[in-house]
Write a structure and sequence with these properties.
Layout (H helix, E strand, L loop, with lengths): L2 H8 L6 H9 L2 H13 L6 H32 L2 H24 L4 H14 L1 H9 L7 H22 L2
Helix pairs in contact: 3-4, 3-8, 4-5, 4-6, 4-8, 5-6, 6-8, 7-8
């Protein structure tokens, strides 16, 4: 990366408006699923809330995997050779955890959605490491932290609403 690119890369702590809007829209599936589940009540004979809840947990697992893909991309394009291997190992972990937790969610929805939500809420720890290494834009944490905490909380809340 040239010096000019580094300066432009680090400029500004406010995320681009497009990233803010698209990130916020990414929370909508979980908000809608939680609303539908709570609005339908706890009637076990209503299949729609359960199906929506299952789709929402699938969505949360996919987002966790997506984050790992972002980290893989950052590692492969911006990290030094000595950092790359370790960051790529970290980048694979979200897909493995997401698959495991989603796979177990039918039998243990509260536990799995709670763990999935906690893992999502903890992903900014990796993002912070990437920020410290200057591998992501200066605004990265201002976008990632609120989105991860919100999605994590919604995922945990959905798990409790599914019981």
């Amino acid at each position: 990366m040239s010096e000019g690119e580094l300066v432009a890369f680090g400029r500004g702590r406010r995320p681009p408006m497009q990233a803010i809007v698209l990130g916020a829209m990414g929370l909508l599936p979980m908000v809608i699923a939680l609303f539908v589940r709570l609005a339908a009540g706890m009637d076990p004979d209503t299949p729609l809330p359960g199906k929506i809840g299952g789709l929402a947990l699938t969505y949360a697992a996919m987002i966790l995997s997506f984050l790992g893909g972002i980290w893989w991309g950052v590692a492969s394009t911006r990290a030094s050779e000595e950092e790359r291997s370790r960051l790529m190992v970290i980048a694979v972990a979200p897909a493995i955890l997401a698959t495991l937790l989603y796979g177990l969610s039918a039998d243990m929805p509260v536990m799995c959605s709670t763990l999935l939500g906690l893992v999502i809420a903890l992903t900014p720890l990796v993002d912070r490491m990437l920020e410290k290494k200057r591998l992501v834009p200066a605004w990265w944490m201002n976008l990632r932290l609120p989105l991860s905490l919100a999605l994590g909380a919604l995922t945990i809340g959905l798990g409790f609403a599914l019981t």
